[in-house]
Write a structure and sequence with these properties.
This protein is about 35% helix and about 15% strand. The strands form two sheets. A seven-stranded mixed β-sheet has the order 3-2-1-4-5-9-6, sandwiched between helices. A two-stranded antiparallel ribbon has the order 7-8. The radius of gyration is 18 Å and the shape is globular. The longest helix has 17 residues. Helix 5 links the parallel strand 4 and strand 5. The protein is built from 13 helices and nine strands. The protein starts with a helix and ends with a strand. Bound molecules: S-adenosylmethionine. The site of S-adenosylmethionine has 22 residues, from loops.
Length: about 250
Amino acid sequence: MSSPDYDTLGIDYSRTRRPDPRIAERINRALDDSLSVVNVGAGTGSYEPRDRRVLSVEPSAVMIRQRPAGTAPVIQAAAEDLPLRDGAVEAALAILTVHHWTDKGRGLAEMRRVARRRVVILAWDQEIWESFWLLRDYFPASDIDRRRALAIADITSVLGPSEIIPVPIPHDCVDGFHGAFWRRPEAYLDPRVRAGISTYATMPAAELESGLGRLAADLRSGEWKARHRELLDLDEIDLGYRLIVA
Ligand SMILES: C[S@@+](CC[C@H](N)C(=O)[O-])C[C@H]1O[C@@H](n2cnc3c(N)ncnc32)[C@H](O)[C@@H]1O
């Protein structure tokens, strides 16, 4: 079993995608006192707590190969068919992965099936996400994230009553996911940064070039800074990332 996306996309994942300690702390708190955790769509092992018994599930061999020594044992499998018995673990965790699943409803139901106590998911609220300056001003026509995002309400309709916890993104976020560079706009012009963000791998080339061209021009002319001066004083921002704890 292998995920074609991440067997191509993920070749250099561990270079730009490393856990941010402040986000890790929030995830850790959400897991509460769960001692055993399955990390679904675990990738290279970011955000896997070291002080709990963790089993990782990840479909892509390329991602599995990048897991550093000392990370949790991993099974090559997909969320839609978790190789665990009912209630096998106290908690099931899924970080920035649900939007990649082929059958999201089935994957979420599987998480619920294997977790005795709680399910913790990091995803985003698409409406808030679309107000981010990068999407609003430079990629307004892009519907890639819209097509693959699962509404928070659709997640909770499978998981049941849930706590929705905003995850503000620090201005110097260590993990290079899409929203991480909100106060460092030049980063989006760097192909090595974009290589760690799946949105850009699937964006039509013309749309990508046009958006990046306009961003580069606004950075050169000072227009970006003039328009977003207030961002430079913020240490963190809410871009719509949410922890869903069920
Ligand atoms: C953006 S990465 C996130 C990885 C990791 N959770 C992290 O926070 O760094 C998305 C991951 O989801 C995995 N994935 C894709 N389809 C999947 C599926 N159907 N079931 C489980 N994982 C899947 C990909 O292979 C990739 O490792």
